[in-house]
Amino acid sequence: MPSSCKDIRAALATCLQNSDCVLKERNAAVDCLRPPLVDSLPTRCQQLKQGYGQCKRGMIDMRKRFRGNQPIAVSKEIEGEKGGQLYGGGRAVGETGIGGAGKGDLDLVEGADGEWRKRES
Asked: CA-CA distance, 4 to 9, in Å (whole number)?
């Protein structure tokens, strides 16, 4: 098995071993993953089961074949970081303008001789 799914598989196995389905009800871990017992699993185990299925599917997905599955810890939503959108409808240039010029320095006018000068107030 490729290493991209080993971490999530180990996390799923640990979650199943600590669940009530295995500890209290004495069911096998494999039986807890099948209906109707899958509904009695904690939400975390159900999410890990779904994530493991997506990881396995990603290994045969031709669109992800060269790049591979992304590691679990890289997910920015889990780490609390906001996603980096390049342009979201706001200003493309920050407050300082291009090349560090201030807001007032961007008011330029082309003179009669073809030179660019600051606009006179």
From this structure: 10
E strands, 74-115, are 108-110
C-alpha–C-alpha distance, residues 56 and 1, integer Å: 10
Structure tokens that stand for 46 in this block:
């159900």
Q: Exposed, middle or buried: residue 12 (CB in 10 Å: 0-12, 13-18, 19+)?
A: buried
Strands (E), the chain: 108-110, 116-118
pLDDT at 7 > cutoff 80? yes
Report d(CA 34, CA 86) in Å as an integer. Answer: 43
Per-residue confidence at 32, pLDDT binned at 50, 70, 90? Answer: very high
Task: State pLDDT tens for residues 56-82.
Answer: 888 887 776 666 666 655 444 445 555
Cα 94 to Cα 36, 46, 118: the distances in Å are: 55, 44, 20
